[in-house]
Amino acid sequence: MAQGAPEPRGGPAIDAQDLLARAAAAAAHERALGAATARDLAIPESLRLDERTRAAMRIALDQIVAAIEASLRRAVVPEGFPGIGPTLPLLHAAELAADPALVHELLARIRLDQLAAGLPHRAADHSARPSLLNRLAEHPAPELSEAARALLLAESRARSPEAGRWRLPLTLHRRLLWWVASAMREQAGTLAGVALDEALCAAVAAECALAERCAEEEVEAVALRLAAAIAPEPREHARVLLEALRDRHLPLFLALLARAGDIAFADARALLLDPGAERLLLVLHALDVPREAIAELCFLLSDADPRRDLAALADTVDMLAAIEIAKARDLLAELRLPAGYREARAALRGIRAR
Length: 354
Hints:
Elements: H1 16-42, H2 51-76, H3 88-93, H4 100-118, H5 132-137, H6 142-159, H7 170-188, H8 194-214, H9 219-230, H10 237-246, H11 250-261, H12 265-273, H13 278-286, H14 291-304, H15 310-319, H16 325-335, H17 339-352
């Protein structure tokens, strides 16, 4: 006579199928842990994130996913769909949260915040002088004063919890909306059907439309409009760039750099955040920024970012005198090419190098 299942000892009863399923799950977990450990060991120390940045990225991702969940849940809860909880664990399990474009954008925004926080707390060359942005806000020319006030307002909105600090580009925002909506639908399982699909898709469409309407009022877009209104002459590039950096207004600095070089804001940001700064220095050289101004810029960046080697940067600045302007302008011309084309070229060069 077969022996029956043992009596539970204080926990829920399990049957043979439960036991087999748990054993299979344990084996899968062990394989996943081994694969993750192998990937972790393969990362060179020079590419590892410090714990402060890693924690900031986790918080940033959690904040933006939670904000999307809240907006979608408000749209679907009246329909009466239970069983929907936090979606980030499911996104991690599906490796969607490790999407390279999403990770790159979050890291860039965190690095930019860290750089701004590390810059010296001083308004300008003279401590009593108002910052560049505040002076522009009081400028008699309406196109300048209105654009400067719009940037001050956009920066204030970006810092408020209601607006959400971790704004993403529209393409990434749409992608994350669909991921979160799909994870919510997956959680509901058999408790819901086409009605939930339709409610979630309608909610995502509404959120996408709202994001498109708000895009022109985001900090980057407003900063670019102010840079266009300032429209400094080439000989004034050094002055306005340094003033924006001294004032810790990095969006304005990046917008001015992007406009001066006729490059995308994201490319200007990548130049600024590269701790080696070789490409940034070459672009400034191509723009005929004087060596003294480039040297001061390097000092400010090194003071703000412990990853930067001031002595190495000083050597690079000294080398600029030996580099023809035409060679530096070749780099600038490459940055003006469409990003998709440059990414495809880089991918193909990587294949040929194997």
